[in-house]
Design brief:
alpha/beta, 9 strands, 14% strand
Length: 284
């Protein structure tokens, strides 16, 4: 560790999963960590972190949280946006209200946090914002299409924001995990609609997602990359594990080579099969 004041880190959604593992690991490295939780009396102990009430869906809660951390620590050097929820189902099966709720947490919640911490970071002339994205922020997400669209939105927001704030000494990073063994997928909400035409394919793809999640690395694997983004040289996009290879393949391979592998990975039927697949009509 370096001499001088401890860096102050605000970590959202620190009660479980990646958020909990990140808060504990960063605190163990000597940072002063504030873990945002919706219920401060969480049954899951969090060594070395100070818990603060936070609901990223509530602007009043967000502002109160940032003000409390500022009052207790005097500054916020690092914001780690962990809060997120998942949703499984076909795009056509997903209700508009479900999609709005998902975006409210995964995108607008991040935006609320960013807007709340930026004034302080600009005044101090330094800051780091680490946003937890996903491989589904840069590849398609069959049967998690709305969730994947929130991660695509997060990636666009993060990259644009980094250009806007770097003149103030603030940088933005994207943490891009592959599957991680948390309850984000195992307890994911299901799309409200149920359309028979999607049923068998949905079940096959959901089984693949469950299997990959159950055999995925521990959340600490992601937490270690977050810590590297705080302590190491700056690099915006930080894919982890198999996401490293996927990020290269996505950029380098033409769709005709990339898409068959993706469809196989999600246990999707070949595009040419099925009575519902028809030759596109041509129009004058």
């Amino acid at each position: 560790m370096t001499n001088g004041p401890r860096r102050v880190v605000l970590n959202t959604s620190a009660s479980s999963g990646i958020g909990w593992a990140t808060a504990e690991l960063v605190a163990a490295r000597g940072k002063r960590v504030f873990g945002g939780v919706r219920a401060v009396a969480t049954p899951h102990p969090l060594a070395g972190a100070e818990l603060v009430p936070l609901d990223v869906r509530d602007e009043t809660s967000v502002k109160a949280c940032v003000e409390e951390v500022g009052s207790r620590a005097g500054r916020i050097d690092v914001l780690i946006n962990n809060a997120g929820v998942n949703l499984v189902g076909a795009v056509e099966e997903t209700s508009i209200s479900q999609a709005q709720a998902l975006f409210d947490t995964n995108v607008i919640g991040v935006l609320r946090m960013i807007q709340a911490v930026l004034p302080g970071m600009r005044r101090q002339g330094a800051g780091l914002i680490a946003n937890i994205s996903s491989i589904l922020g840069f590849i398609p997400a069959p049967f998690m299409g709305v969730y994947g669209s929130t991660k695509h939105a997060l990636e666009g927001l993060s990259e644009s924001l980094d250009h806007e704030v770097r003149a103030f000494g603030i940088r933005v990073v994207l943490i891009q995990p592959y599957y991680t063994r948390t309850n984000l997928d195992t307890s994911a909400a299901q799309a409200e609609g149920r359309i028979d035409a999607y049923a068998s394919q949905r079940l096959r793809t959901a089984a693949v997602i469950t299997q990959n999640t159950n055999t995925a690395p521990d959340p600490k694997f992601v937490a270690e990359e977050v810590l590297r983004s705080i302590e190491g040289p700056y690099r915006m996009r930080r894919p982890i594990g198999q996401a490293v290879l996927l990020s290269w393949l996505r950029r380098l391979l033409p769709p005709r080579l990339f898409e068959p592998s993706l469809r196989k990975a999600f246990a999707l039927d070949p595009a040419s099969k099925g009575a519902a697949v028809t030759k596109p009509r041509s129009y004058p």
